[in-house]
Amino acid sequence: MGETIETDAGGIWVDRRGEGPDILLVAGLSDPAEAWQAQLDGLSDRYRVTAYDNRGTGRTPLPDGPLSVPGMAEDAAAVLRALEIGSAHVMGFSGGSRIAQELALNHPQLVRSLVLMSTFARPDAYFRSMTGFWHWMAERAPDERAMLEAFLLWIYTPRAHADGTVDRIIEETLAFPYPQSVEAFQRQLAPFRTHDTLDRLSEITAPTLVLAGELDIVTPPRHGREVAERIPGARFELLPGEAHQPFQEVPDAFNARVDAFWREIQARG
């Protein structure tokens, strides 16, 4: 249902569903727009939901030269401008939450509200070590399945590994016709490992909801609390029993929570 649109930043693949207030979904490391399938399906009855492929993911090509978080935020802004969206409720996940932070900092007029899922602002020593391992794991894993089996240990709950959810996600990823190359994975990972927004978060003016999974080992809740404490008026909420990617594991509950937040913002006018 998606298409490549021409923006002032070049061609970017987008998927749009529904009618209503605009929602922009910003995916994390390696995730194409399909990562948001449960939100594209579950929220488009009352919102106009837009997801897109970041640079080097899915159908959006990897550019020459290094990637940067501010540069990827410019891509998000370019998508909104190309689609003639004056402002949107922006939801970013993990690395995509960093892009969303930069979008809110550099283009506040485009951001009606922020939802930051599994977010962080300043990478710590644990995060740098973990992602350093991911960098070389991507090129040294014996095959793509082995890479996914190892990588997803950090991403999903033990429940999802036990009930077959992770096995299903692996099969869907292997069948996806636009796989991410090792080079694209590493080049996308690099800016997320080092980018720091902590000292600028106080400049964000958009109403903000920060969500963190209780069991998240990639971006533990302490990171989300730190982000919420720095953004004026931000709300922090812990999702009990969830890990890094609850919008996929418990989509109905997740969608209900963000819908309630957006309805609250809409009611303010």
From TrEMBL:
Residues forming the AB hydrolase-1 domain are: 23-246
* Protein name according to UniProt: Alpha/beta fold hydrolase
Amino-acid biosynthesis recorded as keyword = no
Q: Which organism is it from?
A: Streptomyces sporangiiformans
SUPFAM superfamilies assigned? alpha/beta-Hydrolases
GO-annotated molecular function: hydrolase activity
For the keyword Transmembrane, the answer is no
Q: Which UniProt keywords apply?
A: Hydrolase
